[in-house]
Amino acid sequence: MACLRASLAAAAAASRTTATPYTMPFLSSACSSLRSYSPSASRISLRFFAASPLRPHMYLNLQTGVGLVRAFSGKPSATSSASDPSQLKSARKDIEELLRTTFCHPIMIRLGWHDAGTYDKNIKEWPRRGGANGSLRFEGELKHAANAGLVNALALLQPIKDRYPGITYADLFQLASATAVEAAGGPKIRMKYGRKDVTEPEQCPEEGRLPDAGPPSPAGHLRAVFYRMGLDDKEIVALSGAHTLGRARPDRSGWGKAETKYTKDGPGAPGGHSWTVQWLQFDNSYFQDIKERRDKDLLVLPTDAALFEDPSFKVYAERYAEDQDAFFEDYAEAHAKLSNLGAEFDPPQGFSIDGVPNSPEV
């Protein structure tokens, strides 16, 4: 673990700039910029958080980040196909430590979503169909507008990848995403592993497959994007509930306020506009707050409002606002399904790492 802390300290030293932090969790591309990110997320409640030992401002500007990505983006796993189960189990422990020290839960969730969310069910050929294949590590895909700031997630995970070369990037991204949900208080997600990595930047999907936060027809846009992935209305609403984490910032997205009474003091970098009061805790308050819309210090994007305006979406949004257990159950299933989209597994059925002994550090 001392080795992990040393790696994190090195990453923090490399990442200090004067950029403004980005703190929105995942898919809403209109709420991102090509600048930077500041990790922040919670396990239980804001009042239990201490300042990160890596400073509350931890970011990479695009030029520095791309330099780091060029250093590792072309390297496939040492296994050349699937991942080593014991190394994945050990990597999960290191990710848990990373989350405790940097509060980077939102960006890790977003990383997993964005690697998988390029999947097109109408394209059968791998890897042209997109999906969870590790392609997001390549510079060209990182420069897609929807992926702004994700270079920071890669920089944080690369020391773990170096320590465990027998795992693929595709598995590492999804492992980090699921672990972040659970560490923030969310449901246990039944994951499988063994995803193959793409090996060349030419195998990256074209830009434009990820959702926007403020399209002209929010419900129609959500369906167009998520139906292309093979997801349905229930899964769209359940996955939207992960906006219970994080904040948007108007200086980069045009959405929300510069700060609110809930964000002005942090933790992490202060400011931004959150969807929920306890914006570092994974729960069902996102649905409750959108439904009530009584607090102007809480953000509601057009795609959020659509969940209670569209008749089909509303059925699920109402249910999740009333029943957190139902939300957690449906979210866990939808997240697991998303994490497998487009993936090529070796072995073909994949494998679980629960019950697998930890690997010694490699």
From TrEMBL:
Residues 197-217, 248-269 are annotated as: Disordered. Residues 248-264 have a biased composition (Basic and acidic residues). It catalyses: L-ascorbate + H2O2 = L-dehydroascorbate + 2 H2O. InterPro entries: Ccp1-like, Haem_peroxidase, Haem_peroxidase_sf, Peroxidase_I, Peroxidases_heam-ligand_BS. Its EC number is 1.11.1.11. It is found in: Plastid, Chloroplast. Its cofactor is heme b. One of its GO terms (biological process) is cellular response to oxidative stress. GO terms for molecular function: heme binding; L-ascorbate peroxidase activity; metal ion binding. Residues 167-362 form the Plant heme peroxidase family profile domain. Keywords: Calcium, Chloroplast, Heme, Hydrogen peroxide, Iron, Metal-binding, Oxidoreductase, Peroxidase, Plastid, Potassium, Transit peptide. PROSITE patterns: PEROXIDASE_1, PEROXIDASE_4, PROKAR_LIPOPROTEIN. One of its GO terms (cellular component) is chloroplast. Belongs to the peroxidase family. Ascorbate peroxidase subfamily. PANTHER family: L-ASCORBATE PEROXIDASE S, CHLOROPLASTIC_MITOCHONDRIAL (PTHR31356:SF1), THYLAKOID LUMENAL 29 KDA PROTEIN, CHLOROPLASTIC-RELATED (PTHR31356). This is L-ascorbate peroxidase. It comes from Spirodela intermedia.
